[in-house]
Amino acid sequence: MNIIFAGTPEFARVALERMLAAGFRAPLVLTQPDRPAGRGMKLQASPVKQLALEQNIPVVQPRGLRLDGKYPDDAAAAREAIEAAQADAMVVAAYGLILPQWVLDTPRLGCFNIHASLLPRWRGAAPIHRAIEAGDVQTGVTIMQMDAGLDTGDMLLSESAPIRDEDTTGSLHDRLATLGGRLIVEALELAACGGLRARPQPDEGVTYAHKIEKAEAAIDWTLPAEVLARRIRAFNPFPGAATSWTGDAIKVWAAHAMEGAVGGSPGEVLAAGAEGIRVATGAGALALTELQRAGGKRLAAADFLRGFALAPGQVLDAVVPTKEGG
């Protein structure tokens, strides 16, 4: 089978790698334009583009796919490449562009999406983050037949995966990427022999995983400790939960809620030692166990406290100051 692949980040790269290893041919890869990244802000190719170039697969990077949109020339060039590929199907994984109807209709078998949730729960841009933030105990991957809606297409294959108490978005992402790579290979093998069966998504249980905004990084100490612990795991590695003390930003990478009644106002440091920095919240206390100062390294609480003295009675700020002072 000839499979066009559309994807951008590491989650998608894993799937493309599995497809190629399974013997599927990829005559074309679509990915986002190169973006500036790193300290030097040099243009960097996406993980998918890097793999495609290693495998000598042609790559196109349109800024848009709507023929009547902002980048009609990009869309027209992409259309020419997609039609020339004569693909049996297109596989889409975290691509970053909405596919217009002409794209959905071009491959013989349509477009298959690798979505990191058990649809219809967590349709949208950030299903892994939102599942952890909400306290879900399981998630999974769904292979979906794409339609014009937002993750509303028929389900082709799905498999669940547990969300562990210690999972961050980073660790869960890696497991779901592996699962997604395996499931898309299974789906394509079934499609090749006519054995793939679609089923509509149920009407009940629809939720939306809205895009993660950097503003969500600020720790609101008036929230319960359990909620904050989940958000810290959900925002690791991006955007990273953060607080501040006397104007210095502090990233919090690991924390856990502590049981029992506590005194102090939200954000007040109750204790600081090798076992963690215990902070009062709106309900309960949160023990911060891995932290990072701006420009520094991630450190265990004991090492962090050697260079950043926090003491009981001090109150951490709920709003992290920006470079502009806001």
UniProtKB/TrEMBL annotation:
Keywords: Protein biosynthesis, Transferase. InterPro entries: Fmt, Formyl_trans_C, Formyl_trans_C_sf, Formyl_transf_N, Formyl_transf_N_sf, Formyl_transferase-like_C_sf, GART_AS, Met-tRNA-FMT_C. Residues 2-188 form the Formyl transferase N-terminal domain. It is an enzyme of class 2 (transferase). Residues 211-308 form the Formyl transferase C-terminal domain. Pfam families: Formyl_trans_C, Formyl_trans_N. Belongs to the Fmt family. Attaches a formyl group to the free amino group of methionyl-tRNA(fMet). The formyl group appears to play a dual role in the initiator identity of N-formylmethionyl-tRNA by promoting its recognition by IF2 and preventing the misappropriation of this tRNA by the elongation apparatus. HAMAP family: Formyl_trans. This is Methionyl-tRNA formyltransferase. It comes from Hydrogenophaga laconesensis. The lineage of its organism: Bacteria, Pseudomonadati, Pseudomonadota, Betaproteobacteria, Burkholderiales. The gene is fmt.
